[in-house]
């Protein structure tokens, strides 16, 4: 595990060598960027007119299910794919016509893509040698990066002699040494085991903050996206669903798709009873009338869904089975996670997933127990039902709709 | 025999087309951008390929369809004598295809699945025909089983008649079965042993597993091997000339037309009738059979399966394999020993005359000429094969399949056809729209006594083995490795030089090796291109066998095998130590 911890004060070293000199460059702007892989006009667009501005030094995550166009977008930015339409600019200058090897960007690959015939040091030095950096300086810079990444002990090893985590660090070192304006990450952590993944992502985040390099990170792992990003770009079917900071994306998703993809959510039918004002709407759900935060698109006539996160559901006291109320539910399943218990509870409004943290042994409910269900104040989020339905929500069919609640 | 080399080289690495590495969608692998370097490179390769194979084949076609050739083509259809030749060719192809495939399968099955000692020896034995020149087997078979054969007459006292179909089937099957062996060996090694275990778990006996699981999985292998051997057999020239007797086939008829009747158009016409089925079979094999393969060959054994010890399978397989092996050993011992006998099989007195003739006499020029030309051709063929592989796998999109096909033509076009095509194209200066673009390249009056044409033929014939090996090994390298190089600032050419080439070095070595072995042992295209100024060993052997000096022929064969083996060693050392400084890696 030696290799997994960064040297005591890498920041000082980085500062001393000027590696973290920020010059405020690295603004990327995409407009109308599209990619179609087939040659016929009726082939589907893998990326469908994406508009996005990434500020210098920002850490942006492209998040979405497989096939949503996130990797294609990243590869267009890197220059490995040529956009079908649209423009791509870096600090105001057009990048579309610039060959991938001339773009001031470095990519970290999912498979690490270390050169198997070169040692760790040679891998890191590869790009600088191509730049014809004088050998003394080259040596210094490689040493600095190897030290920052705590790889000095492995400098002369071949990549296949390293563990997965170490290989990933070499890949990162090889990208960093180029002092790119933009760092591109293509699901770099997906080949690591769970624990290592958490360590590496913390390290990536720390380095990126320190060095201030604009970073674009592709992942399908929402945890990664949440913990790493300044802003998350949620993509689906080649389009951007939402761009925002992690807490907003989680608490106030722009669409049912986003709500469903990020975290877990239960959707309940809700009846709007008053015209929304200033982002708040009165509704009836679970047999009670209350006010909740709502999406801008919700109006008095909207066919609306109330999104509830499992941790926002409150369960209070067991009740007798014949105590029939709208807010009483019956436990269908109980799954013990250690730090929490997760229940599926059947109510008149549908099946709700609830998560109770830090449960006491005696309080854990058993299947067939009945409980009173409520929603923590101001934790609901009212969304218009998707018209272009791709999440499996079948309007007018409550049971299907609620079964969709899933573990993301 | 020589034409087994390419196929074997290909089979060694990839009997079936490899799937792209997992983890990336197919379209993302290829760059859409038209890199000017790639365009220039592609154009250069296209021009070279046109000269190497396009122009000769076109010349042959135009000669075959000129009035003279057309008359011969008509006679092939109408005359019973010609029907006989066509029928002979087909029968030979079918029998050799079947017998060779079966031997190859038995050897591979024994090697991979059956428990016995001496697997390494069996493997070397099965590979021996690849480095041996043509005639070695044929001449030895005549010595052993001919009218005065050491075995047929000497032991059993019968006047055996080995000339004709029987002898040809024996010799061709023994010469070509390595192709099938390599093919089946690759497939059997990649068969997932858990399939057998699953069948056994469901209650099937070993024998039942063999017939209900193993054999059905190998059907594409049987089809592919049969087709390849069929083509090898109908295209072979050396053995029918030596051993055919009255059994004339199309290849030997074409040879006689050119060298005996001095009628090149007739030769072109006869060889066209080999070219068409050969190309057809090649296409079917490549684009149909290989697609039907259910066995994915990844180059890595998928697991360890318990070797078969059940007597019901082990005994018959090992008896058959042992019998064939004994025959092969006898034949190559005869080749080796025959070089030291006054008149092999008749007067077995020890002599060094034959080796003196080959090493210091007339033969020494043939030795040095052949080795020189092969040494010039091998690196060119090896590097071109790698370049084509790189273009096909990484750089080209729509034209990739076409370039791959053109490169493989060197293997698909029978040697006789190629040789006649070269004779037609390059004995006179090449003109384009009335302007001379190339001087004469072949024939005694051309530069280097026609050596250029011979080198070109060597390149053409050797290219496919390098290409196949290169494609197989490139498919094993994740495209992200090259993209990483690009991302770090390297242009296409730099990436190829600094990353791709070092990674495919083992494929390059095997490409170079096979290119060299193949050049040294090729005969059928060369007999049409040798000149008094340049002596080629294989055609010298033909001359010796023709005039009955078997001792000299055996000595030539032994020397040739020795040269090929030692140069294979040297090439391996050179490429590893000099070019890549002995750097090792593992992927």
Which features does this protein show?
heterodimer, A: 408 residues, alpha+beta, Rossmann fold, OB fold (Dihydrolipoamide Acetyltransferase, E2P), five-stranded mixed β-barrel, 24% helix, disordered N terminus, disordered C terminus, B: 587 residues, mainly alpha, MetI-like fold, two-stranded antiparallel ribbon, 24 helices, 70% helix
Question: Can you describe this structure?
Answer:
The complex is a heterodimer of chains A (408) and B (587). With 408 residues, chain A is of the alpha+beta class. Chain A has two domains: 246 residues, P-loop containing nucleotide triphosphate hydrolases (Rossmann fold), CATH 3.40.50.300; 152 residues, Beta Barrel (OB fold (Dihydrolipoamide Acetyltransferase, E2P)). Chain A has ten helices and 20 strands. In chain A, the strands form four sheets. A six-stranded mixed beta sheet of chain A has the order 6-7-8-3-9-10, with helices on both faces. In chain A, strands 11-12-13-20-14 form a five-stranded mixed barrel. In chain A, strand 7, helix 6 and strand 8 form a beta-alpha-beta unit. In chain B, the strands form two sheets. Chain B has a two-stranded antiparallel ribbon. A two-stranded antiparallel ribbon of chain B has the order 3-4. Chain B has a single domain, classed as MetI-like fold (Orthogonal Bundle). With 587 residues, chain B is mainly alpha-helical. Chain B is built from 24 helices and four strands. In chain B, 70% of the residues lie in helices and 2% in strands. The longest helix of chain B is centred in the N-terminal third of the chain and has 34 residues.
Question: Which SSEs are present, and which pair or pack?
Answer:
The complex is a heterodimer of chains A (408) and B (587).
Chain A (H helix, E strand, L loop, with lengths): L9 H8 L10 E9 L8 E10 L4 E5 L6 H9 L6 E6 L2 E2 L10 E4 L11 H11 L4 H14 L15 H13 L5 E5 L7 H18 L2 E6 L2 H7 L2 E6 L2 E6 L1 H6 L4 H6 L4 E7 L7 E6 L2 E7 L9 E5 L4 E7 L8 E9 L3 E8 L2 E8 L12 E6 L5 E4 L13 H6 L5
Parallel strand pairs in A: 3-8, 3-9, 6-7, 7-8, 13-20
Antiparallel strand pairs in A: 1-2, 1-4, 4-5, 9-10, 11-12, 11-14, 12-13, 14-20, 15-19, 16-17, 16-19, 17-18
Helix pairs in contact in A: 1-4, 3-4, 3-5
Chain B lengths: L3 H10 L22 H29 L2 H12 L1 H34 L5 H13 L4 H10 L19 H26 L2 H9 L4 H12 L1 H17 L2 H6 L6 H10 L4 H26 L21 H28 L2 E3 L3 E4 L2 H7 L2 H34 L4 H13 L2 H12 L3 E3 L2 E4 L12 H25 L3 H9 L4 H12 L1 H17 L15 H10 L3 H30 L8
Antiparallel strand pairs in B: 1-2, 3-4
Helix pairs in contact in B: 1-7, 1-19, 2-13, 2-17, 2-18, 3-4, 3-13, 4-7, 4-10, 4-14, 5-7, 6-7, 6-14, 6-24, 7-10, 8-9, 10-13, 12-13, 13-18, 14-24, 15-24, 16-17, 16-19, 16-22, 17-19, 19-22, 20-21, 22-24, 23-24
